[in-house]
C-alpha cells in the first residue's frame, strides 16, 4: 500500500514520524561529525528515504535544525495572550517563558546538543539571529496588543520585546556555557529579574489596564 492509499490519520502520523526521525538523525550526525561534514543525502540514507523525501519536509539542511522555531514562537505568543489582563507585562512574559521552558525541559540533552551545534557553526549562528529577530517581532506585536499600544507610534512594546529576547538569549547562553547543569527556569527567572531592574519601576505600570 502506498502512502497515498493510507487512511488520512495514519498517513499524517507516518509523515510526522518520518519528519521527527529525519530531525533526530540529522542532529545525531551533526553532533558526531560536524554540521558542515554531513550531507542531506547521508541524512536521508540513514533514515532509508530519498533526498527528495527529505526536501519534502525541510527546504534546506539548515531548516532541519530550525523546524520547531515557528511552533515555539506561537506557543510563547499564545502563553502571553493567556495571562491575566492585569498582570504586569514583564511578569506575564516571565510566566509565559516558564510555561514554554517547562516543555523544553523534558529533553534537556536534546536542547543542549541542538544549541551546541548552532553555536559552533557560523552559518547557523546567523540563522539563529534571524530567528531571534522573528521572535522579537512576534513578541512586540502581542505586547502591543496586550497594552493597547500603537506599535508604529510607541516604542515601549518593541523595547520590552527586545529586552525579553536578550534576557532569554543570555540565560540560554549561560546554561549552554555551564553544560546544561543549571536549572533553565531558574536562569530565566534571574534574567527577567535583572531585566526588570534594568527597566526600572516604570515597567510596573505596564499592565494593559486603562
CATH class of the largest domain: Mainly Alpha
Oligomerization category of the chains in this entry: single chain
CATH level 3 topology of the largest domain: Tetracycline Repressor, domain 2
Question: In the residues, how many domains can be counted?
Answer: 2
Largest pleated sheet: none
Helical content, roughly?
A: over 70%
Hey, roughly how much beta strand do the residues contain? under 5%
CATH architecture of the largest domain: Orthogonal Bundle
Estimate the global geometry from the Cα principal axes.
globular
| Number of strand elements | 0
Radius of gyration from the alpha-carbon trace, in angstroms: 20 Å
Number of separate helices: 10
Summarize the helices and strands and which ones pair or pack.
Elements: H1 8-33, H2 40-47, H3 51-57, H4 63-66, H5 69-81, H6 89-104, H7 108-119, H8 122-147, H9 156-177, H10 184-199
Overall description:
The protein is mainly alpha-helical. It has two domains: 3-59, Arc Repressor Mutant, subunit A (Orthogonal Bundle); 68-203, Orthogonal Bundle (Tetracycline Repressor, domain 2). 71% of the residues lie in helices and 0% in strands. It has ten helices and no strands. The chain has helices spanning 8-33, 40-47, 51-57, 63-66, 69-81, 89-104, 108-119, 122-147, 156-177, 184-199. The longest helix is centred in the N-terminal third of the chain and has 26 residues, at 8-33. The chain is globular. The model is unreliable at 201-205 (pLDDT under 50).
